[in-house]
C-alpha cells in the first residue's frame, strides 16, 4: 500500500534522506527507527507531501506523492512532530475544520468527531483552547486529527512523545487495534515501542537505510536485545569525537 | 472548492477569536470618520464623501498589512502550516481562502462606515455615483494592499517583519505617482521609466475612480495587481516548502 522508491532529500550539504526504499503492506505496523537527525522526520514529511523529494518518489495506495500530492493527502492520516494545530481553536472546532477540509460533512462529521474523541480520550477537553492543553492532550488531539477520516495509511511521527506511561499504553493499544485494516508507519526512537506494536522494523542512519526486517529476524541475526543492536548499528559509523547523533 | 470555503470560514472565525478584528474595526471606523470631520467636512458645505474617501489610501497603507500580517507568518511560527499543507488542499486554495477571509474583514469595515452615507443623505442631496465608485475603488485598492501583505507574510515567521515590509511596499506603490516622487524620479531615471512609475501609482488610479467613473483599465489595474501578488505568494510558499 505504501512504497518508497529511492526517496532522497538534501538540505544544502546535509543529506537527510539518501535513496530510501521500502514498502509497507496492509496490516503492517512499521517501526521507523534511527538516532536523532537520522532523517526520520524528513522522510515522514516527504511521504505526507509536505516536502517535495529531490529525487525518487513514493506511492500511497496507488497515488504518486510527486504527481498527485492532493490525492495522497486524502489517503493519509499524518501526525507530525510536535502536533501542529491552531492554538486558538478548541479541539471540537479544530476537528470540525479538519472534517470540512476533508469532506466529512453533516451527520458523518458529528459521528467522526465523537468517535475519535472517544478513541483518543479527549472528550473532557473538547471545548478548551488547544494552547491551554497539556502536552499529552495536545498529542492526542493531533492523533484524533490524523484518524478522523479513517485513512488507509497512517504516518505517526513519535505518537507517544510526551505521554505518561498509562497514556502510552492506551495509544499503543489503539494503534494496534486499528492496524489490521491499515498500513501504519510509526517513527520513534523508543525501542520498547517497537516491541509493543511493530511487526516490521526499518532503521536509518545519516539518511541511509541500514535495516529492513522484522524485530524477531533482527534479534536472531544480530543476537541480543534490540537496544544493543540499535547501538551497534548506528554508532560505529560516527567519529567518536562527534558524539552519538548529529 | 470545499477546501477553499473551509479555510475561508476558519480564518474569519480566527479573526474574531482574537481581539484583532475588533481592534481593527473600531480604530478604522474612528480614524476614517475623524479625519473626514477634521478636514472641514462641514465647512465645505457640500453633500459629498470626497473628504472621506481621500483618506482611504493612507488608512489602508497601515490597516491592510495589519490584517494580512498574520495570515502566513503565524502559520509558520506555530508550524500549523505543516498541518494545513498536509490536508488535501493545494497551496492556491489556501492562499485564496486566507486572502478572501482578510478581504471580508475589510469589506465589513467599509460596510460599517455606512452612517457616513446616511449622514450626507440627511444633510443634503449627494450624487450617489461617486459614493458607490469610492466604495468599489476602496475595496479594490485594499485588495491589492492585502495581496502584498499576504505575500510578505509568507516570507517570514515574524508578523512584525511582515507588517513593516508590507507597509513600505504599499507606501511605495501609493506614492509612486505623487508630484514629489515624480519630480525626483524625472531627475534620476532615463526618459520613459518615470512614466512607468507613474502608471503603477495607486493614488492616481484611486483618484480617478473616486471621481465617480470606474474605468475598466483602473479596475483592471487593481485586479491584476492583486492577482500578481497572490501568484507571487503561491510561488514563495512553494519555494519555501521545497527548501524545507
Layout of helices and strands:
The complex is a heterodimer of chains A (246) and B (244).
Chain A: E1 2-11, E2 14-24, E3 29-33, H1 40-47, E4 55-60, E5 63-64, H2 69-75, E6 76-79, H3 91-102, H4 107-119, H5 135-147, E7 153-157, H6 165-179, E8 183-188, H7 191-197, E9 200-205, E10 208-213, H8 215-222, H9 226-235
Parallel strand pairs in A: 3-8, 3-9, 6-7, 7-8
Antiparallel strand pairs in A: 1-2, 1-4, 4-5, 9-10
Helix pairs in contact in A: 3-4, 4-5
Chain B: H1 2-17, H2 20-38, H3 50-54, H4 56-68, H5 70-78, H6 80-84, H7 91-111, H8 114-123, H9 128-153, H10 159-175, H11 179-188, H12 193-199, H13 202-210, H14 216-243
Please give the largest β-sheet of chain A.
Answer: 6 strands, mixed
Question: Order of strands across the biggest sheet of chain A?
Answer: 6-7-8-3-9-10
Strand content of chain B: under 5%
**Helix count, DSSP H or I runs of 4 or more residues of chain B:** 14
The second-level CATH architecture of one domain in chain A is 3-Layer(aba) Sandwich
Strand content of chain A: 15-25%
Order of helices and strands of chain B: HHHHHHHHHHHHHH
Give the chain pair forming the largest contact, with residue counts.
Answer: A-B, 31 and 27 residues
Q: How many separate domains of chain B?
A: 1
Distance between the termini of chain B: 27 Å
Radius of gyration of chain A: 18 Å
Total number of strands of chain B:
0
Please work out how many helical segments of chain A DSSP would assign.
9
Fraction of helical residues of chain B? over 70%
Helix content class of chain A: 25-40%
Global mean pLDDT of chain A: 89
User: How many DSSP E strands of chain A?
Assistant: 10
Q: Structural class of the helix and strand makeup of chain B?
A: mainly alpha
